[in-house]
Amino acid sequence: MASNRQQLLLTCCLLLSCIALFDVLLIWVSGLLIISGIIRISLLRHTQKHTITQRTLNLLAVLSLVVLFWYGWQIGLMNSMLNLLVLACAFKLIKLENHKDFLQLSLSTLFIIACGFMFYQQIIAVVFYSLLVIALLFALQSHFQPNRTLPDLSTELIKQISFAIPVSLLLFIALPHLPPLWQMPGMNQAQSGLSDTLNPGDLSRVAQSAELAFSAEFQQKLPTRTQLYWRAQVMEVFNGKQWSRHPYRLRQQQQLQFSQHYNPRVFGEHYRYSVVAQPTGMNLLYALDVATPVSDDVIANPSYQLTSKFPLVSTISYEVISWYQTPLDQASSFDLVLNLQLPPNGNPRARAFAKQLAANNPTVQQKIRAVLQYYKQQSFVYSLQPDVMPDNMVDTFLFEKKKGFCAHYAASMAYLLRLMGIPARVVTGYMGGENQSGNRINVYQFDAHAWVEAWHEDKGWVRYDPTAVVSPERLLYGLEQAVAYENSFLTEQPFSLMKFKSVRWLNQLRLAFAQMDYWWNSWVVGFNQRQQLSIISAIFGSATLTNIGLFTLGALGIILFIVAVYIWKNKPKSTSPVAVKYYLHALKILKKHGYQRQYSQGPEDYYQQIKTSSPLPVFNVFKRLHNNYMHYQYAGKPSMSPKRLKAELKQLKHVLRTSQS
Amino acid sequence: MSFSALIDQSLENIDSLIIGKRHQIKLALTCLLAGGHLLIEDLPGMGKTTLSHALAEVLGLKFSRVQFTSDLLPADLLGVNIFEPQKQRFQFHQGPLFNNLVLADEINRASPKTQSALLEAMEEHQVSVDGTTHQLPSPFFVIATQNPVNQSGTYPLPESQLDRFLMKIELGYPDEASERAMLKEQINGEKPALDCIITPEKLNQAQQATANLHASDAIISYVLKLVQQSRQSADFPHPLSPRASKAILKCSKSWAYIAGRDHVIPEDVQAVLGAVAEHRLRHNQLLSQQTTPYSQLLLERVDPVSD
Questions:
Q1: CB A447 within 8 A of CB A430
Q2: Quick check: A597 and B305 CB within 8 A?
Q3: HSE-up of residue A641 (Cα within 13 Å, Cβ side)
Q4: CA pair distance B180, B172, nearest whole angstrom
Q5: B304 contacts A601? CB cut-off 8 A
Q6: Which of A133, A282, A341, B176 is the most exposed place for a label (fewest CB within 10 A)?
Q7: Distance CA A639, CA A646 (A)
Q8: Is the pLDDT at A143 greater than 90, yes or no?
Q9: In chain A, what residues touch B305 (CB-CB under 8 Å)?
Q10: Cα-Cα end-to-end distance for chain B
Q11: Sorted alphabetically, which keywords does the UniProt record give (chain A) (predicted)?
Q12: What percent of chain B is modeled with pLDDT above 90?
């Protein structure tokens, strides 16, 4: 049985690996785990002598299963499976009795640690998990070799890890990165980022987060700041309270996955860049207009949106070309009809206002200018803390509060334009971003933005940003400057490094972290076939099929070499001299023929046993081998030559065969 | 006549006196040959004293027997300084300890004070009385007998003192045939006389030869593996000390010598291990629940034939 030290270490590893998953685990499951941890530790420290009986434990397990089954509907398959695993571990921890239990629990803990990667893939998480794995390996090692000293075990562990790291690196780089065979069971959890409906109040909540949304690395030049409208999704349906996508668009998107891609006509100059997007659990991707995807898994649709084939459960990277001089002039008649739809009533003042504007301004251009003019002339205020507007949101905003976030402006403007008969829609996404070194732009959640697109017969969809009219700072400098007057930037995250931009070294530190994070996300978490191919072409010049084969074989060869070196270095050294070797061999042969030697039986004893139990020819041959062994091993006399010993062995085999037949 | 033949003859002679205990007699001889003290533990009437007597006679040693009781004092054992009025000085009168072979009968009936006086003499081969040190004769052997600890009126020997005995043997009940022979002999009324077969000089030579007997690396590794096993496994509450491993090798050599071999083989170690190690592995019998001997357990866990 493992001694206390190893069990204690294992218990700590298990608890820590689950602490890291605290927002995935159900509260009562974590509670149960902590209680069983306390029980185990108090058992180990002898503050408590009696463990829970098997019967109580079984009952508890059944009850927990029932409760988990009940909750399982709400938290999704994936999470309930993880909870089940942790539950099982908690019960095993109480009943940690023998060698088998210890191994089982160690392996399960390793599995839980691996599960952690599904939820957290940041560098810091990886460091944490690596430390846990090392601690666990250490516990396992000292469990198997309890007599070795601490420094001895550590050097052994370091040796093993130093062999394992290059092997896993090579496997990571060289193994083909296939797309997942099945989709991850959906995570029924709110992920940060844009949602697929636009409730004007929601977007300002998103903008309270300083989390990275995505980062884009441009190949040559960077666009100017006012060009940085990152389209994420287009909202075309307004139900009086919120904007959302039309169900038809979802069907259209599913069809596009299987049919040919949507290819808008593009021309003019372009930007080429790759984007590393953080997980959102949705299919939304981000790009500047008009985007055509380069990567395979990315689909363009007629709303000029990019979507991914799979929900973003982990960081992904994709490459895009944006033709910024191409107008967005593709629209079907369905699109235009759809973008005029409005709920039949509500917002009476807005309706009257629109009617009046439409009467005064005959052309589309004039109507739009008049609306923008209204925002400009009235005392509208851009704010991260808008008031709640439950009913007739547009009326309340336009004529009473006059204080809102970009979503309020975009939603109200699109509403007014539709009232005046101009096809219009709300686009959500991100605006701006922070310039990093190396032509890179980091876009954070607080860069979330919403704007309006209106249809012109001659120019197609044209972007209007009412927020920019009210608060040009938002467009030119970003959110922080735009809401500086009310001091509401990141009020929910008082310790975010973003807040300390003015402190120079802190800002540099933040930028360095961001750089590291980007590198990590693009080369480790988002490592895919494309990057694999780029490595191959960097080595061989081009990524032909032969080169890929060579690369994979080469990597496998190196791995085999490393493994061989490890095995060779750790080979038990057989220094036994020939007399002993052949004697042991003879014992094996005799055992095969039924002359079993007891484990603790001495050689002389065994000799006497053979003498009485075996036929004479067998005994005569064995006698010579035995005497040779005894003389060599115990009397310090020289042994027979290896050649003779070999002959004797052969003879032994022969007489055994003939005596048995 | 070779020493091995002498030993055989002695064995024959003692065997005719204590029938059916050949292995134990051989162990006792081994112990004396290795220069160590012997502890015989058994119930009363099993032939402990007879065996000691026989050994002393066969070896031709000066013999004394001390019956230990609870009121025995150290002075009764070591001797005292007595004032002689004629010479006007103190004269040391040697106690029974000043003999080649001392039989300490029922040692665990004496008080700890007396026990420790004896054990000190065993270790140092000398006694100190009133500040003067007196050398004990050489060779000096102690054969102590003791009743099992759970018998009434006993002071169990402490662990440190048990360790002083090279071997502890138990005689056990004789088998039926032996006992029958014994009873018949008693009816006949003749008690075989024992002659001195091994002279002290011969014994001295034999002890020298035993010390120089060849013990190969393989044997030393086997002894080490046994000792390590007792230290590594939690099944052994009292691991073997280096003194114990030295004792095991020493006794194995003597055993090999008695068997007439000039080198030690694993069977020698296995033969003596029980007698040498059991009382060190199991210090206090009363506390232990273990029924199979620890030395047996130890032997079963180590493979003598491996590289």
A1: yes
A2: yes
A3: 3
A4: 16
A5: yes
A6: B176
A7: 13
A8: no
A9: 583-584, 587, 597, 601-603, 606
A10: 39
A11: Membrane, Transmembrane, Transmembrane helix
A12: 18
- Domain spans in chain A, listed from the N-terminal domain onward: 4-145, 197-334, 345-422+457-499, 578-660
* Domains of chain B, each with CATH number or no CATH: 3-188 (3.40.50.300), 213-301 (1.10.8.80)
Interface of B with A (CB under 8 A): 214, 216, 218-219, 232, 262-267, 270, 299-307
Note the pLDDT of residue A2: 45
Exposed, middle or buried, B241 (CB in 10 Å: 0-12/13-18/19+)? middle
**A553-562 average pLDDT score:** 90
Q: What pLDDT, on a 0 to 100 scale, did the predictor assign at position B265?
A: 93
Distance between B211 CA and the closest CA of chain A, angstroms: 15
B304:A576 CB<8 A: no
Per-residue pLDDT, A179 = 63
- A163 phi-psi bin (left φ>0, alpha ψ -120 to 50, beta other): alpha
Sequence-separated (6 or more) residues with CB below 8 Å from residue A248: A334, A338
**E-assigned strand segments in A5-47:** none
Give the pLDDT confidence score for residue A467 in this predicted structure.
87
How far does CA B54 lie from the centroid of its chain? Answer: 14
Q: How far apart are CA A406 and CA A449, in angstroms?
A: 6
Q: What is the mean pLDDT of residues A96-124?
A: 87
Active-site option among A335, A395, A465, A517: A465
In angstroms, what separates the C-alpha of A618 from chain B's closest C-alpha? 20
Contact A567, B269 (CB under 8 A): no
Contact flag B300-A599 (C-beta cutoff 8 Å): yes
Burial A562-601 (b: 16+ CB within 10 A, else e): beeebeeeeeeeeeeebbbebbeebbeebeeeebebeebb
* pLDDT band, residue A508 (cuts 50/70/90): confident
Q: Looking at the complex, report in whole angstroms how far the Cα of residue A632 sits from the nearest Cα belonging to chain B.
A: 9
Contacts of B260 in chain A (CB under 8 A): none
Q: Residue A213, SS3?
A: strand
Please give the full DSSP string across A287-348, using - where no structure is assigned: BPSSEEE-STTEEE-TTS-EEESS--SS-EEEEEEEETTS-B----HHHHHHTT---SS--H
Query: Which two three-digit tokens encode residue A272?
Result: 């080429």
- Averaged over successive runs of 10 residues, the pLDDT of chain B (307 residues) comes to 77 82 89 90 83 84 88 88 86 88 87 86 86 86 81 76 88 87 74 74 87 90 92 85 92 92 92 91 63 85 82
Q: Give the residue-averaged pLDDT of A507-528.
A: 79
Residue A89 annotated as catalytic: no
Per-residue pLDDT averaged across A383-410, rounded? Answer: 83
Positive or negative, the Cα torsion across A17, A23, A26, A30?
Answer: positive
- Determine the residue type at A195: S
A24 half-sphere exposure, CB direction, 13 A CA radius: 24
Task: Give the range among A317-321, A480-484, A591-595 with minimum mean pLDDT.
Answer: A480-484
Q: Which helix (H) or strand (E) holds B125?
A: none
Tell which residue, A530, A535, A560, A536, has the closest CA to residue A548: A536
Question: Residue A403: enclosing H or E segment and its boundaries?
Answer: strand A403-404
Residues 6+ apart with CB under 8 A from A221: A271, A439
Task: Quick: pLDDT tens for B11-63.
Answer: 888 887 888 888 898 999 899 889 899 998 888 888 888 888 888 888 888 88
A53 to chain B, closest Cα gap in Å: 26
A183 pLDDT higher than 60? no
The single-letter code of the amino acid at A325 is: Q
**A329 noted as active-site residue:** no
pLDDT recorded at residue A500: 67
Q: pLDDT tens digit string along A623-637?
A: 998 998 998 888 888
CB contact under 8 Å between A574 and B216, yes or no, is no
Query: Phi and psi for A653 in degrees, rounded to 5?
Result: -60, -45
